[in-house]
Sequence to fold (586 residues):
Amino acid sequence: MAGSGAIVKLALVGHRGVGKSHLLKRVENYLSDIPDIAFLSLDQEIERRTGKRIVDIFSTQGEAFFRSLENKVFTELSSEFKNLVLDVGAGFEGSFPEDFKTLWVKRAIDSSQSQFLNRPQLDGSLVMDTERFLKREKRYKSLCDVELELLEHTQSSCASEKKYFRYLFGIEKLSKEKSSWFVTLFESHKNFEFLNSLSGCGFELRDDLLTQESIKKILRKSFPFIISHRNKEYISETQKLIKENILWDWPLEWGKSEAPIHSLHQRKDSLVETLKVLDSIDGVIKLAIPILDFKELQTAYQWYKEDPEKRVFLPSSEEGRWKWFRLLTGHQMKFSYLRESCGSSLDQPTLLEVLRYEPNNKLWSGILGAPVKHSLTPSTHEKYFKEKKANVLHVDLKEHEWESGISFLKELGLRWAAVTSPLKLKAFSLVKENQGKKEDLKSTNTLIFKDRWLGTNTDIDGLAKLALNLKDQSVVVWGGGGTLDVIKKFFPQAVFYSSRTGEPRGSSVNGSPHSIIWAVGRESFLKEGVLPPKKWSPEQVVDLNYTQDSPGISCAYNYGCQYHSGLDMFLEQARKQQEFWDSYGI
Fold:
């Protein structure tokens, strides 16, 4: 067995609820062949050794006492085990011995607004104050050797994660494969050689992100490099570092040069006028400008396809909405960029996303909507579509882009789709003649292309499961928006209230309802939403959302009642989506 003598000391750090506990269980599967190795949670070990619950220690003896105890137990564990993978918890303030690697476990939706009803409250608040959140982020950054951004709702072991952890400790042999992917290096990158061994990637060395000394040191390694001029003060110094076999990149904003790669990062008001700037350029052209919508995305992609040997198209945006496109087309380009941490652009796919993506799959599935980065659809359907030799992507598609967007996505190979609000009505208009008995709902959340677009609504299957649990109960629906017609179908006894005004949409409830169905998303609620009346005393809040920052959690917390996430409902409608897709046999 390669690397069987490896010493494994790994600490998992990251915010509350990020998924460290689930990851710990998966890592146990990946590294179980290492002799004398333990996979432990520091919190669980504290409870086992003291016989007390963490919440009780917090409430009776305070956070300072707990942090001291936490450090003591960590020191004991680190000396007791030769090989150890340890989830140290979110607020651990101790130091790590030199033989430990520290992994910052992240998610794209990490937020100080995440809420946890079953964990110790910090400063008596359900959410963490922003200052504490940012302080922890800064600490994680300073501590970590590597950062790993997880996909949402990853529950089961997967080949790409296993490869990641076995390469991290040299348990598997180094990869000899090369790829078209590059990582932009920062001074904070401590283990960049590991990235090459894992993915075969090369490295971009920018003279505005790295010192000249750092660039010189890195160039001693035998990896694929692109040296990028980005700081006018260092033009001559950077040019001296370029050897015969090293590619280098010159920004067109500075004019033309003899560089093998010219890149453009700023655009004119018109995309057409921007592309005209590139007509007279020799060599490889990297177009990495902000792209405003799907029409521009399609236009620029057509520009790339006209000469793919000399053109590279890397769309950018403030919010990272084109990451799916870069992942989908990255293997076509002469080179593209992935990120191991924050990277130089949020549109760059993460290392784990690139490892999971199968470039030989020509057809793919997507979750369509805005926003969608929180969606569990890709991880929920990953195994299903892997058997169909198809990838699953988050596609940020806005309502006004639907017509041009759905056509372009089909051209790129989209054949299956889950659709979120507010696109469900648009999707219904696309397939209304084929929706069958569910046509009266005027809402479609599931699509498949087979000669034409076909669709159905599986939200009703999730709601049907929920309705069984709330039968004959007094129910108030708070919000609902575009899903009101569907909700009314299953809860004829419910009283409906506007989450925007707090007023009933007809008759009002007498007294207090037994259950509140929370049917408004976070963004809509924060924009113009109000909480239900304080005088009510419901026994439960049933949330149609499943995100950890849903205001429905705050609603249940304020009432001191039970809270039920929309996760079970989501999983039921996802199961029905697979049944629908299977019925067409693609």
Q: What stands out?
A: The chain has a mean pLDDT of 89.
